[in-house]
Amino acid sequence: MQKIILILVVVLLAFSCGSKKQEPAELKLVKKYIQALNQSDYSTVISLFKDSVRMNELVYKSTFSKQQYYSLFQWDSVFKPTYTIEEIQWMDGYVEMKVAKKCERILFLNEEPIVTKEQVYFDEKGIKSVDIIEYIIFNDELWNTNREKLVTWTANNHPDIDGFLYDQSLEGGLKFKEAIYRFQKIDTVQN
């Protein structure tokens, strides 16, 4: 009888420990989303959203059709972004995470990765929205200064690629990247 009770206690303990380690499906979904972003895998990213992509940034709210998001995704992918989840937790209805993003554009403009606090909301079909609720690391003054230097220099020296700043398409991204490359190349030669 003692052996049976002991076996039952061991089985119950093993079962309860195993269930505590079970990660909520929403956490897995967010990790899959970040992994797909890191791999520039549009098909996987878009499959995780219901029918449109909602990206909210502080007070700015944006809803993209899948086609509209594809254009933005291509633009962002030009700069080879990498996302690192620094913290993540399930908050009873949404996932909250701290994410560091770096890419050629961000490192040029901000001179270090941007770190944001984000909340990801869900519906029955997947991710409903990704909301940036706080910029933890972002140097607005440095960003604006570096952007203005690049835009002015490009307009004066390479009008063939000017106008990239507000063109969030693949072509605009390629021009933006080329402007950074040319600017850094001339800066390296001068120093």
UniProtKB/TrEMBL annotation:
Top-level taxon of origin: Bacteria
Name of the protein in question: SnoaL-like domain-containing protein
